[in-house]
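Researcher: We plan to redesign the surface later, but first we want a full-length starting point. Tokens attached.
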């Protein structure tokens, strides 16, 4: 699946900022209150403080970035879609936000800057093989400040795929799409895979549930990554 083509296509045809970043649940846009729940959950899990410098990787059109901005010192949003970054700059800029086009696989342009907290929300599924996931985590670690943490939020969870693909035909479709790499959702990550990546990079990887009020809590989990030693 070419994810850049997919996201450029969606952002070029959708005017609505929620739809531009796929914030639809069962074909309905999620509402403002749900977005606020998501922000609160991110703040709690990342223990955001007003002194934090934050990197929001795969920030999309900056909708969520701009809602997190009031709770930190500064936040930088990176996305590989030029159209989404253009929208972020024109519609979701605040005094402490900064947006730039960039590919999560190569954060060399950010170095030597370091971030206290790194967020990759609703996007880890696009790093759709074990090696690709590992590569993006390696890149994030290269710009993570000592004592910092990374939140991979809203990660489709392999053990929970049956909560999303409920019927037998849907389950067959899931396995077929998984096998052929055609799943539009992206990769459903296994806990074991995250454990292996964490062990390779000397990290702890805490698998966290989401409040039930979040739209995808039935089949997604979050991972909080921290270095064991800085
Ligand atoms: C579902 S949207 C999520 C946007 C935002 N994080 C949110 O939660 O609203 C996924 C985003 O990931 C971006 N993306 C996917 N792969 C990327 C990559 N390799 N580098 C940078 N951005 C990427 C897409 O362009 C898209 O904006």
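Model: Full-length starting sequence:
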């Amino acid at each position: 699946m070419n994810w850049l083509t997919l996201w450029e296509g969606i952002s070029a045809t959708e005017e609505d900022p929620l739809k531009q970043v796929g914030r639809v649940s069962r074909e309905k846009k999620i509402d403002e209150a749900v977005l606020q729940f998501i922000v609160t959950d991110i703040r709690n899990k990342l223990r955001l403080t007003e002194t934090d410098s934050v990197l929001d990787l795969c920030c999309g059109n900056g909708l969520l970035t701009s809602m997190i901005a009031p709770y930190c010192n500064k936040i930088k949003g990176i996305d590989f879609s030029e159209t989404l970054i253009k929208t972020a700059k024109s519609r979701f800029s605040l005094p402490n936000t900064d947006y730039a086009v960039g590919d999560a696989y190569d954060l060399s342009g950010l170095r030597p800057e370091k971030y206290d907290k790194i967020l990759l929300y609703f996007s880890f599924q696009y790093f759709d093989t074990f090696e690709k996931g590992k590569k993006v985590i390696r890149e994030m670690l290269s710009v993570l400040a000592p004592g910092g943490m990374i939140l991979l939020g809203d990660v489709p969870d392999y053990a929970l795929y049956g909560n999303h693909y409920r019927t037998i035909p849907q389950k067959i479709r899931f396995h077929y799409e998984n096998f052929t790499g055609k799943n539009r959702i992206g990769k459903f990550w296994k806990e074991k895979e995250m454990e292996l990546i964490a062990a390779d990079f000397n990290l702890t990887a805490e698998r966290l549930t989401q409040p039930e009020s979040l739209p995808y809590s039935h089949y997604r989990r979050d991972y909080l990554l921290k270095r064991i030693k800085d």
